Predict the structure of Pur operon repressor.
Amino acid sequence: MKYKRSERLVFMTEYLTRRPNDLIPLTTFVNKFNQAKSSISEDIRILKEVFESEGIGLIQTTAGASGGVTFIPRISKGKAEQIVGHFSEELSKQNRLLPGGYLYMSDLVGNTRVMDEISGLIVTMYEDKKIDTVVTIATKGIPLAHAVARKLNVPVAVIRKDNKITEGSTVSVNYVSGSTRKIETMILAKRTLEDGARVLVVDDFLRAGGSISGVIRLMEEFQAEVVGVSVLVESKDIVDRVFTDYTSIAKVANIDEYNETFDVEPGNCLEFFNKG
Amino acid sequence: MKYKRSERLVFMTEYLTRRPNDLIPLTTFVNKFNQAKSSISEDIRILKEVFESEGIGLIQTTAGASGGVTFIPRISKGKAEQIVGHFSEELSKQNRLLPGGYLYMSDLVGNTRVMDEISGLIVTMYEDKKIDTVVTIATKGIPLAHAVARKLNVPVAVIRKDNKITEGSTVSVNYVSGSTRKIETMILAKRTLEDGARVLVVDDFLRAGGSISGVIRLMEEFQAEVVGVSVLVESKDIVDRVFTDYTSIAKVANIDEYNETFDVEPGNCLEFFNKG
């Protein structure tokens, strides 16, 4: 079969966007379409232009024998503001407030479109950090961790608070929960992480930061390096945290259980995009 | 800016594949590109041909004022066999066997590419079931549930075994675990599911089926209808299950803890693709 340029472009767009951060050898397309390398390179040039001008991401081409093309999802400042705005608006809905001043967020975490959009924002911030694994804590962080890992093309490791026989040998640390001051345990299967792995920690909610401090300690046991921490929502009402280097998509402040009100602000992630 | 057909096709391919099962009005593209409807329709015809001949999925066009175009991910029999083969091969690795005859699968569940491929297989089987929500049980089912929900364009509801304050009001049922014969509890936040919802239940491992029977009972409390059950792996060594209507990607049989051996076979999902 002879493919026209228009047909090749449809195929290549679908192929590349389904494999973000994966080096695709040019020969994949040369062989598939039975075309000269120069025609395929011209196809990729068109793709690259559209991807960059439409803010879909970067198309990186690598020359040489082991060369090829990589799709790197990356969003613009405008798009980041739009995502943060949309998320903050959803988060502001009055009926989220639960007894105890907690926020109901399962619908947001369970919405694959929302997770997908926010993961685009997170990978843009951490794309150059050479991340090997996304680490999260069961259970609400898992959807975001997977959405992020999908775009980074790395695996997800899930830390649990209970020991399951299906994990094999595990490493555990005890930590003090920042909000309840209770001692809790965190467990990760030994074979989930390689020594020296560079990890991005992703979670749904950052209160006092006890659990994330626990994750950082657990990562030390694995000789892994935490190169970033990113959370969906942080509580602004808490001032002292053990660690301060993290990004957030939104902040929740002034939770007033009695009057059933709370405020939502953009998270600190926009600082990254404002820097340019 | 004037877009050429090749550029429009790149944009439209990325736009549609990122929004599976979403009706996109033709006017979205007509306005974006400032082109006549006839040109856009011709673009879509090209896209449709490539998607169908390459087994990417269907492009459905709906006529009329509220008309538009929908990308429906659907894989072929050949692709399904390839996915099942690849997954079975990964699953066969000797070092998965844990004490107690359990299989280590966290690496597969944590691999976003594997989850993405398998979700394509699952949505092809359940695409015509008008699913409103994908339901799973924490924690290992969550990645597959999200991958499936992303392609169906529906939310995910996660059933937990512990009560968390962040869930608000919940509904719970007790059930007897098929393997341990212990009484356990399952909990789902009340506002996660609407009355009468049609749900697809997704999980990682099916042993005796106690937990999935629990899910079915819990769904009755929500007046929800279970229109399908799909699992990553089923244990073939178990003969009597409370329910028999489910699909699986792979089967594990003859687990021999002493000799550290087990067999892997394709799951029953291929029967769907063999029917045509």
Notes: The radius of gyration of chain A is 21 Å.
